[in-house]
Design goal:
Layout (H helix, E strand, L loop, with lengths): L2 H15 L1 H5 L6 H17 L15 E4 L5 E3 H8 L3 H22 L8 H27 L3 H12 L4 H31 L1 E5 L2 E5 L2 H5 L2 E9 L14 H15 L6 H8 L3 H4 L4 E5 L7 H14 L5 H4 L13 H5 L6 E5 H9 L21 H10 L4 E5 L1 E8 L2 E8 L3 E3 L4 E4 L2 E10 L4 E6 L8 E7 L12 E11 L12 H4 L25 H18 L3 H13 L6 H11 L2 H32 L4 H4 L26
Parallel strand pairs: 7-8
Antiparallel strand pairs: 1-2, 3-4, 5-6, 5-16, 9-10, 11-12, 12-13, 13-14, 15-16
């Protein structure tokens, strides 16, 4: 029998099975929806050849009649039954189940590979497991087997064990066909394009181009500072020491790497165990905006090695509301800032200073005036992206105003390869060309020459009333191991090769290269887990992939929906345009929120940020009480108490 007759019969049974729901206003109970699909499929699967006796009821003719004289046409039933999303979904699932069973039993490739009987047997085992569960529950609850079985069947949305068997089989068939689709088309999903099957074209998204995977690693240093205090937050002495020590070790790597320092320093214990590797970040990843959009900002605005056409994929300013965002983000002090290494060194030197050289409290012991907190707030309590430079700052005051002069650190020597030594010792500073008029800057990089991006971020608070952590607040040191916008990367590997799902060879390499799968770890169990994670990423890239899988198997089966109304409803159900637009709008909203965050930070810091001169003169504070320009009343370092 042609499969379109299966579908006609499914619809007919759906009408009959849900006549009560129809008279209740078209509301479809979840349980009945499952049962009708199972029942129709059971009838079809048990008597395939007999199905030819069922034919479609012509439009306009009565399909149901009742004793009180009510009659309903097929058109009326269809119109009312599908007035809710539940109704359309029921049609979709019933068709999917019919097609899945047809493919498992009739497709020349699949029906002969033994998988059908294996999946049926698995369903039988699951039914037996549920029966045993009913026996156990009866013993535990002091009831009887029939009562507990009925409860379990009800939870599954079926009436009896036969229906349960069919339900489990259907679930197994669909799961098998989903996996088979990915086995066939994983490469298509990675690069995008069309899948052609039986005169049907199915367009799939490109994982690499649409969600933009970035391979990232980081080191996190937790801090006590409140996320909402942009100018006068406080950190502990040990946290200040840790920040300073980490930067020192990043500058003078020696035999270390960014990854080995992540193991030693990072407060993100999960990624620390994999050398700071966070895996893949994409548009679909729920990372904090300072981290995720900070990376996007760098790649789109400042990474001159990437073409403008590639950068446009990040869509920073497509929405009308974002017309000013690009200019804001590309302005120093707003979307980007630079941290002088000399000040970071000083942070470690003054980390435990809490009184001046005479043992006196400064400004009544207000912690915001501790030298470590002045430095932290100025340079590390910043939610935009920052880069560390081989410079120092000389802080002073003139006519009651703070002054700060930035200059190169003593002993800085540029090498021919664009790297730098300090007093003859090789460092990780190197020349990097920035866009947006900034030009070439010497900044801190990892051992491979990747810029180290610094940003302040967090989720929730560091502790709760119970003493348990409810999030984190910290400073991220981030490296983009591979940009989604760089066609070849620093190891001259194409993106589709870098994100290979192939198992590495015995030498631990894939075609002689280190890529995502074999980065940082070198054991086969890690390779497999990373392959699995990458495949999951690729699968999740296309949010409408479930309906596209349905469309593929539907087309492969040769099925046809003969009722134009039902076909139109299914087409609308499978249309991903509304979801795509919603997702795009959500993406733009994250940019607006990030823009608002940086604006709020800028406005609050402008008036409340304590000048560096207050830390350089902190030790002599009590000796300057009468100065009036620094710590004396009205001075720029004087704290006006409420």
């Amino acid at each position: 029998m042609h499969i379109k007759l299966y579908l006609i019969f499914v619809f007919y049974l759906m009408f009959l099975y849900n006549k009560q729901d129809y008279f209740l206003g078209g509301k479809l109970m979840a349980k009945n929806a499952k049962v009708l699909a199972i029942s129709s499929l059971a009838a079809l699967s048990l008597s395939i050849t007999a199905c030819s006796q069922y034919v479609a009821t012509p439009d306009g003719e009565n399909i149901l009649s009742f004793g009180d004289g009510i009659t309903l046409t097929a058109d009326e039933l269809l119109e009312n039954y599908t007035s809710s999303q539940a109704g359309v979904e029921a049609y979709y699932n019933a068709i999917y189940d019919v097609v899945a069973r047809y493919i498992m039993t009739k497709d020349p490739t699949i029906s002969t590979n033994g998988s059908y009987q294996e999946l049926v047997d698995d369903a039988t085992v699951s039914v037996e497991d549920l029966k045993r569960e009913a026996e156990t529950n009866a013993s535990t609850n002091g009831t009887n087997y029939d009562t507990e079985l009925e409860t379990l069947l009800d939870s599954e949305g079926v009436e009896d064990l036969d229906e349960l068997q069919i339900k489990y089989e259907n679930e197994n068939f669909r799961e098998y066909l989903v996996d088979e689709f990915y086995n066939l088309f994983m490469d298509n999903l990675k690069v995008g394009g069309n899948i052609e099957i039986n005169n049907t074209t199915i367009e799939v998204n490109s994982y690499l181009n649409d969600v933009l995977p970035y391979h990232v690693k980081h080191i996190l240093v937790n801090v006590d500072a409140s996320a909402n205090d942009y100018a006068r937050a406080t950190i502990s002495s040990s946290q200040a020491t840790k920040l300073s020590s980490l930067v020192n070790d990043l500058v003078y790597l020696g035999n270390d790497t960014f990854g080995t320092l992540a193991v030693s320093y990072s407060d993100d214990t999960g990624s620390a165990s994999t050398y700071g590797d966070l895996g893949i970040m994409s548009k679909n990843t729920s990372f904090v905006s300072e981290f995720k959009l900070g990376i996007y900002t760098y790649d789109s605005l400042f990474n001159t090695s990437i073409s403008d056409s590639e950068k446009n994929k990040l869509e920073l300013t497509t929405a009308e509301e974002l017309e000013n965002t690009k200019d804001f983000l590309s302005t120093e002090g707003q979307g980007i800032s630079f941290v002088p290494y000399g000040v970071v060194q000083s942070l470690g030197q003054v980390s435990d200073e809490e009184t001046d050289d005479y043992g006196e409290l400064v400004n009544g012991g207000n912690q915001a005036y501790y030298p470590r907190n002045i430095i932290f707030n100025k340079y590390f309590n910043a939610h935009q992206i920052s880069f560390i430079t081989p410079q120092v700052v000389t802080a002073g005051e003139s006519a009651g105003e703070a002054t700060e002069v930035v200059s190169n650190i003593t002993g800085l020597e540029r090498q021919e390869d664009g790297t730098y030594k300090i007093n003859g010792v090789q460092t990780q500073f190197r020349d990097v060309e920035f866009g947006q008029g900034i030009g070439t800057k010497a900044i801190l990089t990892d051992e491979q020459g990747n810029p180290i991006i610094v940003t302040r971020a967090g989720t929730g608070s560091t502790s709760s009333d119970s003493g348990e952590s409810t999030g984190y607040q910290g400073v991220h040191f981030i490296v983009v191991q591979r940009s989604a916008l760089d066609p070849t990367g620093n190891n001259n590997t194409k993106l589709e090769e870098y994100y290979s799902t192939q198992m590495p060879d015995n030498d631990g390499l894939i075609d002689g290269k280190v890529v995502y799968v074999n980065a940082f770890k070198d054991d086969r169990s890690t390779y497999q887990s990373r392959i699995n994670a990458l495949e999951d990423e690729i699968r999740a890239a296309d949010e409408s992939i479930d309906t596209k899988i349905f469309q593929y198997w539907f087309a492969r089966s040769g099925a046809e929906i003969v009722d134009s109304s039902v076909k139109a409803l299914i087409d609308v159900y499978c249309d991903d345009e509304p979801d795509r637009i919603t997702k795009q709008n959500e993406y733009y909203e994250t940019w607006l929120d990030y823009y608002d965050l940086l604006n709020t930070q800028l406005n609050q810091r402008e008036q409340r940020l304590i000048p560096l001169v207050c830390y350089t003169n902190f030790g002599d504070a009590s000796n300057l009480d009468d100065d009036g320009e620094l710590f004396g009343k009205g001075g720029i370092c004087y704290y006006v108490q409420a």
